[in-house]
Each structure stands twice: as C-alpha cells, then as structure tokens.
Amino acid sequence: MNGILAKKLGMTRIFTEDGDSVPVTVLEAGPCTVVLHRTKERDGYTAVQVAFGEQKVQRTTKSYAMQFKHLVSELEKVSGKKEGGERTSGRWQSPKGVMVPRYLCEFDAEDVSAWPIGKMYDASIFKVAELIKVSGVSKGHGFSGTIKRWGFHRGPESHGTHNIREPGSIGANSYPGRVFPGKKMAGQFGNKNVTIKNIQIEKIDVERNLIFVRGAVPGPKNGIIVVRKG
Fold first, then answer.
1. CATH fold of the domain at 3-143+195-229
2. Read out DSSP for 102-135?
3. Dist CA 162 CA 28 (whole Å)
4. Which 3 state secondary structure label does DSSP give 82?
5. Band of the pLDDT at 93, cuts 50, 70, 90?
6. Do 101 and 33 contact (CB within 8 A), yes or no?
7. What's this model's pTM, rounded to 2 decimal places?
8. Which residues lie across from 143 on neighbouring strands?
9. In what order do the strands lie in the sheet with 99-107?
10. Coil, strand, or helix at residue 142?
11. Tens-place pLDDT, residues 8-40
12. Does the pLDDT at position 97 exceed 90?
C-alpha cells in the first residue's frame, strides 16, 4: 500500500537531538479499512479502495450504505429482501445505531492479494525521515481582492488618490487589445486541491496513529488529507 487517509489535527513543534525547533503538522493517519479491489478485468486498472472515519447510516443514501453490507452485518438484514427471497416494498428504513465508512480513497498496491477486504492498517506503513506527498483542499477565503489573493501593493493615499486597494489598470495598447487569460486579478481564493511533494516525516506515534510531518499541509483543522509515499 502506498498511501493512507488522515485527519489534520493542527500544528506544533518538536525538538531534535541537537536542540533545534522544527515546526510540524500532526496527522491522524488511519486506521483505514480495505473495502474494495479494483481489477483490470472489471475496471481496467488495479487499485485498492480504503475507507476512513465513520458516519451514521441515516446520514447516507441506501446506494452508498449498501456498498459496505459485506463489512457491516446489520446491513444484510435490511438489504430489501425477505426470508423467502421476495423484495420488500416501501421506503428503505436505515437501521438505527449502525455506522458505515465516511471517506473513501483508492491507492496503488504492489500485490492486491496481500490486502484482503476487511484488513485494517495504520501509520506503521511509513518510516521516520521518509519523504511523502500530501494532498488536501486548501482553506477557502471566498471572493478576494488582489492584495489578499496575490500580495499586490497598495496605491498611494495622498489627496485625490482613488487607487488605494484597487488593482489598477489592466488595459494594453492597440496590440494585443485584450486581456491575456490567467492575469492576476480579484476572484475566488482558496478552496481547491493542493498537493505538496517531498515533505519529510519527523516522528511517528504508532500507538495513537499520529504522523508528525515537517512544515504545513493544506486544509483546515480536522480536514481530510491524502498521504502518499513519495
């Protein structure tokens, strides 16, 4: 398995043996459960689908919950069939107090047979000082101006000045006579998928499923992070 799903708990710092202070982000990596195999014969590629976290069945749809009836025995009883094999009519009633996985993700595996359905794994698949890459959805800042979004400078605040926090002119001469696509302007800031490569693991706490990675990772606290081996 080359990856795992994790929850961002926040940032702190740890001290090395030399006494240096290292800023780290704490990730709760797993435990994750293997729920499905992707095969070339059926799907055109090979991968392992894993689940992380739990949620109530009442907060899901029937089609989503029934994906896990081979793992949650309570779902087999309400699969829509009676003992005689006839299908029941009426609205599907979700069983109370039953939990199903909340987040799903697919990872590559060298040997799919080594990861049977129902197997659980945690942060022990990683090593200290290993380089990884993390992916997450960055914090959303809504519609932001050029100063906040791109770090533009302010205009002069002297008498008669109207260009204080405005972006300024975006026009050109007769050529090209238009604004090039991709020009830095005001707009949606954040709330997009961000991947950071070559982040080093500083510490691993296997008992609590915690990974301490150097520096910051995208997303807010309690956000879901995809961790893959570099």
1. Elongation Factor Tu (Ef-tu); domain 3 (2.40.30)
2. EEEEEE--S-GGGS-TT-EE-GGGS-TT-EEEEE
3. 49
4. coil
5. confident
6. yes
7. 0.81
8. 188
9. 99-107, 47-56, 32-38, 120-121
10. strand
11. 999 999 998 888 999 999 999 979 999 989 988
12. no
User: Token digits for 178?
Assistant: 């238009």
Residue 17, φ and ψ in degrees, nearest 5: -65, -25
Average the pLDDT over 125-149 and give the result. 94
- What does residue 67 show for φ and ψ, rounded to 5 degrees? -65, -20
**Per-position DSSP letters for 148-209, written without gaps between them:** HHH-PPPPP-STT---SSS------BTTB-SPPTT---SEEES-SEEEEEEEEEEEEETTTT
Helices (H) and strands (E) in the chain, counts: 4, 12
Report domain extents, the chain: 3-143+195-229, 144-189
Looking at residue 88, its pLDDT comes to 55
Q: Which residues pair with 7 in a beta bridge?
A: 28, 224
Say if residues 134 and 196 touch (Cβ distance below 8 Å).
yes
For range 163-170, the mean pLDDT = 88
CA 18, CA 44: separation in Å to the nearest integer?
50
Counted residue by residue, the chain has a size of: 230
Average pLDDT over residues 122-142: 93
